């Protein structure tokens, strides 16, 4: 994929990918120190998908997310401090500590929230698309979900509905080959989830999900199609999570060679090499960006750590509007 | 005052709210031009508001509610129809895990103003998949409101309130009530949630009843009056929020309570109301709490079987006589 985007845009994409990576590394570290309640599902390794898609979206466009959602939030422009604070269960978090890692939302930037029920976000994104159509705006909704979710009934119901009504929705399947520990070949008889698009009469595209520019280009076309009122697109991004399903999962079901092969295809490493090779960024600039991003993450951690916990009785608030 | 049918009252509420607020739209299976809904509640609305706002959907209950949720959190006010209450099971994740929790889980950022209209109830010989009364399922999910209108007047006023509510509402109708006629004023009105209605005043026994059972309770009260027993019939009108004070007030007056609901007895609506009375008004009771409910079976098909499990006037009269 060629680097035919403005330098600012490319640098911003690189920066976002790094933000996600460093953020996730920090979350992992905090978890190991017992500072994160509950569990975590890290996005490390899949950064090219969220960033490639969200770099095509406006602030008023919508996304829906999953249990593995930190990357989607950051790519859509969520505040790192409030994201980290939510993961630590703090009052200053996006959801005032009521959601946690699996349920972050920022409605002010169109991030409609992460649902931890696999596949449940699909019809909700369809509803956002329907709302766009009924309100006659040119927004779009991007719906992130995994290969596992594509076996849920909601995948069929939701994509069918979006296709008959030509709704402006991008269905982004992050195929990381495993639904928890279940390999794709155990759960479906086809190689490409995108092939299912044919059943709904919509475009289905397979892209290298570890190539941010390939994802960007596929999403660009899908967004253009959606904004013109031509309907949804299913984009399958082949990718890989660097860690196990959740914090407790050592991922022993994944062959060593497979893990190594995918680590060699690290999306951030690949993008960095491209940027360096094309002289868009030099080593010094790269180091500068890394330093700045690390600084931002440290600030977010500091904010989150210093933030107060919610008062227990706040558990009773926000049930009803 | 003019009299109109329950289904017409619901349609008037939909029509008035759609005229008032362009964000209100309807979606569901066969609600559009051809059928106008399996029970004809939406008949004629597509002609007035168009197919975009009275939207026929595929048979996809989960996506119907999911789409309603997605539209609601992005500024619309959808009213979804699920053709039979039993089929809410297909949409339960979207109702109970998504719609009900979106506000709370995201720290109060979102509003999810959806209405899920659906008919419950037995009595028309359509067996176990089209006859249940599942209101209690939704009472058990914080974040949902549950409305149970028993008359055309309540149906219209409560539906308008449901549509204007910023919270998800499961609006439970009853299939035997659709043709029932009752007084509905021409002028605009709404009925607040959480306010019970005393459908008949009495002094000896309180009968709390919902939906079609309100009418059976009223029939029973009429018969009992001839025997000198004065029955007060209290209709909660919404189960969440539940007007506990109205029930307790009536119990304070009568000292006796019989709870009549069409759902299964175990962990049902009647169990919750009984618990409220036991916890908060036991000192006022002169007799044990009595419940009349479906005897924990699926709804059978054959008329004698079905009639056997649906609570009737005889059962209500028997229960009342046991406590007086």
Structure characterization notes:
The complex is a heterodimer of chains A (321) and B (324). Helix content of chain A is 44%, strand content 11%. By secondary structure, chain A is of the alpha/beta class. Chain A has a six-stranded parallel β-sheet, with helices on both faces. Chain A has a two-stranded antiparallel ribbon with strand order 5-6. In chain B, 36% of the residues lie in helices and 20% in strands. In chain B, the strands form three sheets. In chain B, strands 3-2-4-5-7-6-12 form a seven-stranded mixed β-sheet, with helices on both faces. A five-stranded mixed β-sheet of chain B has the order 9-11-10-13-14, sandwiched between helices. Chain B has a two-stranded antiparallel sheet with strand order 1-8. The longest helix of chain B has 15 residues, at 6-20. The radius of gyration of chain B is 19 Å and the shape is globular. At the A-B interface, α5 and α6 of A face α3, α4 and α5 of B.
Number of distinct beta strands of chain A: 8
Number of helices of chain A: 11
CATH superfamily of the largest domain in chain B: Thiamin diphosphate (ThDP)-binding fold, Pyr/PP domains
Spatial order of the strands forming the largest sheet of chain B: 3-2-4-5-7-6-12
Q: CATH top level of chain A?
A: Alpha Beta
What integer value in Å does the Rg of chain B equal? 19 Å
CATH superfamily of chain A: Thiamin diphosphate (ThDP)-binding fold, Pyr/PP domains
């Amino acid at each position: 994929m060629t680097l035919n985007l403005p330098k600012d845009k490319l640098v911003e994409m690189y920066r976002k990918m790094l933000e996600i990576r460093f953020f996730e590394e920090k979350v992992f570290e905090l978890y190991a120190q017992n500072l994160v309640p509950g569990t975590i599902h890290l996005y490390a390794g899949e950064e090219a998908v969220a960033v490639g898609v969200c770099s095509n979206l406006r602030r008023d466009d919508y996304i829906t997310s999953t249990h593995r959602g930190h990357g989607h939030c950051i790519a859509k422009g969520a505040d790192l401090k409030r994201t980290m604070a939510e993961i630590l269960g703090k009052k200053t978090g996006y959801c005032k500590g009521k959601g946690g890692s699996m349920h972050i939302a920022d409605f002010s930037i169109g991030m409609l929230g992460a649902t931890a029920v696999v596949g449940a976000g699909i019809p909700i994104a369809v509803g956002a698309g329907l709302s766009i159509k009924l309100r006659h705006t040119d927004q779009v909704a991007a719906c992130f979900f995994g290969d596992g979710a594509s076996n849920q009934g909601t995948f069929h119901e939701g994509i069918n509905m979006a296709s008959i009504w030509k709704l402006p929705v991008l269905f982004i399947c992050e195929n990381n080959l495993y639904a928890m520990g279940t390999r794709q070949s155990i759960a479906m008889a086809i190689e490409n989830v995108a092939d299912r698009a044919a059943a709904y009469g919509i475009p289905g595209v397979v892209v290298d999900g570890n190539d941010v520019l390939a994802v960007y280009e596929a999403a660009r076309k899908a967004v253009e199609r959606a904004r013109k009122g031509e309907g949804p697109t299913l984009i399958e991004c082949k990718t890989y999570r660097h860690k196990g399903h959740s914090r407790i999962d050592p991922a022993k079901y994944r062959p060593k060679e497979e893990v190594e092969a995918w680590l060699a295809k690290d999306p951030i490493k690949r993008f960095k090499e491209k940027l360096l090779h094309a002289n868009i960024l030099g080593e010094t600039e790269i180091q500068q960006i890394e330093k700045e991003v690390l600084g931002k993450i440290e600030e977010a951690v500091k904010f989150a750590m210093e933030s107060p916990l919610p008062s227990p009785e706040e558990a009773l608030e926000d049930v009803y509007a | 005052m003019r009299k109109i049918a329950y289904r017409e009252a619901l349609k008037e509420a939909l029509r008035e709210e759609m005229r008032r607020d362009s964000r209100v739209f309807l979606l569901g299976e066969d609600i559009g031009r051809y059928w106008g809904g399996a029970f004809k509640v939406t008949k004629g609305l597509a002609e007035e508001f168009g197919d975009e706002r009275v939207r026929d959907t595929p048979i996809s209950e989960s996506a119907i509610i999911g789409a309603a949720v997605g539209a609601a959190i992005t500024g619309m006010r959808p009213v979804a129809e699920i053709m039979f209450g039993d089929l809410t099971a297909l949409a339960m994740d979207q109702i109970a895990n998504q719609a009900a929790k979106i506000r709370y889980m995201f720290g109060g950022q979102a509003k999810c103003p959806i209405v899920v209209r659906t008919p419950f109830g037995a009595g028309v010989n359509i067996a176990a998949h089209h006859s249940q009364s599942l209101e209690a399922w939704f009472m058990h999910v914080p974040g949902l409101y549950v409305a149970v209108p028993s008359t055309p007047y309540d149906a219209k006023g409560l539906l308008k309130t449901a549509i204007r509510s910023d919270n998800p509402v499961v609006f439970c109708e009853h299939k035997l009530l659709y043709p029932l006629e009752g007084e509905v004023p021409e002028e605009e009105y709404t009925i607040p949630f959480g306010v019970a209605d005393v459908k008949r005043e009495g002094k000896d026994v309180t009968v709390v009843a919902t939906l079609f059972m309100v009418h059976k309770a009223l029939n029973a009260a009429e018969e009992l009056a001839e025997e000198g027993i004065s029955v007060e019939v209290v209709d909660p009108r919404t189960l969440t929020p539940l007007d506990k004070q109205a029930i307790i007030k009536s119990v304070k007056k009568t000292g006796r309570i019989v709870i009549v609901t069409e759902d299964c007895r175990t962990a049902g609506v009647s169990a919750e109301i009984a618990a409220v009375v036991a916890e908060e008004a036991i000192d006022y009771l002169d007799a044990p709490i009595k419940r009349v409910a479906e005897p924990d079976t699926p709804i059978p098909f054959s008329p004698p079987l079905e009639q056997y499990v649906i609570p009737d006037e005889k059962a209500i009269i028997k229960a009342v006589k046991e406590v007086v």
